[in-house]
Specification:
The protein is α/β, with parallel strands linked by helices and 244 residues long. It has a single domain, classed as 3-Layer(aba) Sandwich (Rossmann fold). Helix content is 37%, strand content 27%. It has nine helices and ten strands. The chain has helices at residues 2-7, 9-15, 19-33, 50-57, 70-82, 118-130, 194-204, 218-224, 226-235; strands at residues 40-44, 62-67, 87-91, 103-109, 132-143, 160-163, 173-180, 183-190, 209-212, 238-243. It has a seven-stranded mixed beta sheet with strand order 3-2-1-4-5-10-9. It has a three-stranded antiparallel beta sheet with strand order 6-7-8. α3 runs antiparallel to α8 (218-224) and α8 packs across α9 (226-235). The longest helix is centred in the N-terminal third of the chain and has 15 residues, at 19-33. The protein is globular and about 40 Å long. The chain starts with a helix and ends with a strand. It binds S-adenosylmethionine. S-adenosylmethionine is lined by residues 1-2, 5, 45-47, 50-51, 66-69, 72, 93-95, 109-111, 114.
């Protein structure tokens, strides 16, 4: 997993510039996060710190990023050395993390979709819950497991498609192909049902789980028009989840 991200790092960075990243992904994410002023925040699977730095810029008092890829942590740390923001980066596997602190918010964009079994998902959720203060929130952006495979190709105009080689069942690999410039690259996520996610969240102690609809930023509507976003919002390839 880590080695794979080391090789596609540059292309992945480019894909962060896709309009849906800013106008749907980030807009929905920050909308859910709300005011970060003075908050403590743990960013799991932080990669090279793309969102991690933004959390600090938006006023979070303490930000810690955890990432399994050595190369990504190195990039994050170099950036921190160039422009210090007082962010702490930790090289580590969320599966083995345990309790490293007590945070108002634990966030993770595109982490849960790497769990291949319900046991792994449970372990990751235990480590998320362990790091939250009482009353804290977990917010995540994730592959949307329940997107009907019939619409997997409808997102090509946004820069990516998904494919499966076998019918969806627990653990089925979902192959993302991302078109960055003239090149494309692929990586796998894994299907675990909404019911399995609900089970894992509630088993570790979350009292409320909210599956949030995606929202398009007003700037995104203005720049691209409402019709442009329709396929994305309808097929819902990604989802936002809030656990209390
Ligand atoms: C698709 S990237 C998302 C990165 C970042 N959250 C973002 O949205 O820009 C997924 C990241 O999860 C990391 N990752 C996957 N499994 C992990 C684990 N068990 N523990 C920590 N990081 C993990 C990968 O190395 C990769 O950097």
């Amino acid at each position: 997993m880590a080695a794979h991200y080391d090789t596609i790092a540059q292309q992945y960075k480019k894909s962060k510039e896709f309009p849906f990243r800013l106008h749907i992904e980030a807009y929905t994410y920050f909308n859910l996060l709300g005011d970060l002023t003075g908050k403590s925040l743990l960013d799991l699977a932080c990669k090279e710190g793309f969102y991690t730095r933004q959390f600090k810029q938006k006023g979070a008092a303490r930000v810690v990023g955890v990432e399994i890829s050595e190369k990504m942590i190195e990039l994050a740390t170099q950036q921190e050395a160039r422009e210090p923001q007082d962010i702490e980066y930790i090289l580590g596997d969320v599966l083995e993390l345990g309790k490293i602190g007590s945070f108002d918010l634990v966030v993770a964009s595109y982490l849960l979709n790497y769990c291949q079994t319900k046991e792994q998902l449970l372990k990751v959720c235990q480590n998320i819950f362990a790091n939250l203060k009482p009353g804290g929130r977990f917010i995540t952006i994730n592959n949307h497991s329940e997107q009907p495979p019939a619409s997997y190709l409808s997102t090509e105009k946004y820069g990516f498609i998904k494919n499966i080689d076998e019918p969806l069942q627990e653990g089925t690999p979902i192959k993302y192909t991302v078109y960055a410039d003239e090149e494309k690259f692929s990586f796998d996520n894994y299907y675990l049902s909404t019911a399995t996610h609900e089970w894992a969240f509630r088993s570790v102690g979350f009292k409320e789980v909210r599956w949030q609809k995606l929202i398009v930023s007003p700037e995104g509507v203005e720049e691209f028009g409402e019709d442009f976003w329709q396929d994305f919002v309808e097929s819902m390839p990604i989802v936002a989840i809030e656990c209390l």
